[in-house]
Amino acid sequence: MAQQPQLQVPKGVLPLVFIGILAIIFISKSTVTIDSGEAGVLWKRFGGGVVTDQPPLGEGFHLVAPWNTVIVYEVRQQELTEKMQVLSSNGLDIQLEATAWYQPQQEKLGFLHQTKGQNYLDRVLKPAIRSATRSVVGRYTPEQIYSSKRDAIQEEIFDETKKIVEDQYIQLNDVLVRDVTLPGAIKDAIERKLDQEQQSLEYEFRLITAQKEAQKQIIEAQGKADANKILSASLTEKILQDKGIEATLRLAESPNAKVVIIGSGKDGMPIILGNN
Prior knowledge:
Elements: H1 13-29, E1 31-34, E2 38-44, E3 49-50, E4 60-63, E5 69-74, E6 78-87, E7 93-104, H2 109-115, H3 120-137, H4 142-146, H5 150-165, E8 170-181, H6 184-234, H7 237-252, E9 258-261, E10 271-274
Antiparallel strand pairs: 1-4, 2-3, 2-5, 6-7, 7-8, 9-10
């Protein structure tokens, strides 16, 4: 039986294959792709750790030394919703649900990673919004929280939370109070009171409207009385005679058949007799 020839690899090829494998590993470890809405923090193993004196890596393809590391953060606006049990100014339990819109300060991303890490949400933002909410709600009564002061409470929570996190390399964009839940008995009492206040306002409005209408009628009547008084005072006997003469002249010029008796009316005023 004939012996098959063995495939022999040239001695110079093996080192080239080994070098090629090392090159592939090197390249794969040296490339980083940052997706849309993200940024990368560079950590240098032999260069002082986290890079904070340079902007973070932006979107796209990047080459880095294989012994360094890139930590990717989402830098677009994100949402945090928290449900909290807080106390009002008179010590009643209130359940409040708030949503915060936030994002890391991209230009300070290295400092955020160095001081807080990727779980900065649990370390900073959640405790901050809880603390601010308890502080703000504790200034108001349940009735104010449920009705008239909700917008003011929302704005105050935003302001106080922002003060806490702005030095922690976190940008707070807004805080929304989405839901407020009061104890059932308190809620019913507040709604009854608000309904009574609304009825009272409606009654007061009708009363004021009626008073204004009566005042308007009094003013109109007084105006008419004053006008008649002035007119009566101005109609002297001489004026009436002049007006009568003017009317007589106009009637005399009219083509209609009539008889005018001069000086036969009351106070010497003319009497006009027509055929109609």
